Amino acid sequence: MEIHQFNPTLSTGDAISNHIVSLQSILQSMGHRSEIFCEIPPVSSRARTYSLGAYESVASPESILLLHFSLHYSDSVMARLAQLPGRKILIYHNITPPHYFWGVNNMYFEAASRGFAQLANLSTLAEVGWGDSEFNVQTLKQHGWQKTGVLPIAFDARNYAVTPDKKIERQYPSAANVLFVGRTSPNKRFEDLIVTFFHLKKIRPDAKLLLVGSTHKMTRYVDFLHTLVARLNLTDVHFLGHISQAELAACYRVGNVFLSMSEHEGFGVPLLESMHYGLPVVAYKSTAVPETLGASGILFRRKEHRAVAALIDVLLADEPLRRKIISQQRRRLQDFSVAQVKMRLRQLLADAGVH
Questions:
Q1: Do residues 92 and 115 lie in contact, with contact meaning Cβ atoms separated by under 8 Å?
Q2: Lower CB count within 10 Å: N or C terminus of the chain?
Q3: Per-residue pLDDT reduced to its tens digit, 176-187
Q4: 312-322 average pLDDT score
Q5: pLDDT range class, residue 44, cuts 50, 70, 90
Q6: Confidence class of residue 46 from pLDDT cuts 50, 70 and 90?
Q7: Does residue 190 contact residue 270 with C-beta atoms inside 8 Å?
Q8: What is 158-335's CATH topology?
Q9: Residue 260 belongs to what H/E stretch?
Q10: Span 40-57, mean pLDDT?
Q11: What DSSP line would sit under 136-181, residue for residue?
Q12: Phi and psi dihedrals of 53, rounded to 5?
């Protein structure tokens, strides 16, 4: 059986790209021929890819093309997908609602709006839609999808087998480092991270806030965040931007707690990364975050910044509590192992008539 994948492009270190490569390996281990097709050739990728146009030469009525979808497809891709032979299954990775980008980035606002319109149209091209969380599946159903299933992100520790950057480790030696990893986008609510850190700094003068994530095309939002930091007269807020895998590993190593104030997550791969590196998670209970954490980490329902700062202070001081949370998180991480995702994929394919 041939089960191939399509994504507009691949990027080294990108969560969806890593998942696609893991799925390819899983499919091949199950005895399927599996290649990866892209619209835009990757600038850097550890996997071999082919142009979407080349898929026509290998497609047959029996072959399956897994369509990874986040944000939107180009018009040319939508037109080509409608003409391609064979079966198609959508894997939905979430679209950030467009209202978060209003007045911040009009291009993203239009792209997200367009993506939701395409999500409904794709239900006529693909026979089933899989979300990487139940939260994402509910979005599919809201856009007219009748046949759905959950296929979680596969966490492969081999993707993190890098030597942590020594410079980062030397630069942030504090025992009270608060870390957040995620693109700098309004839905992530960086301002809530900063205000919470403002209160933590009164309790822990040595605390540092490390903010990791691309700031690409988010100039207005980033300017707002820097203005907020200045108005609060805060020190030790570090916007690290997009960094290398070695630098990311070092940030997780020097981090003492992972804090998420995000209001919209379709899955939350940095939550899994925190589990992997042994970093306790404190997170706002929103969208897919509680689903990904399961019975691990610490969730809060209200953004009472002073109270969250006090909670972080307790977590930094109470070593037995830290060990308990880290242990729970490591058990939860096993649910996203390659072996577990392989079992789930096998069941979903069987449900689709593939054995």
A1: no
A2: C
A3: 999 999 999 999
A4: 97
A5: confident
A6: confident
A7: no
A8: Rossmann fold (3.40.50)
A9: strand 257-260
A10: 88
A11: HHHHHHHTT--SEEE-PPP--GGGG--PPPHHHHHH---S-EEEEE
A12: -60, -30
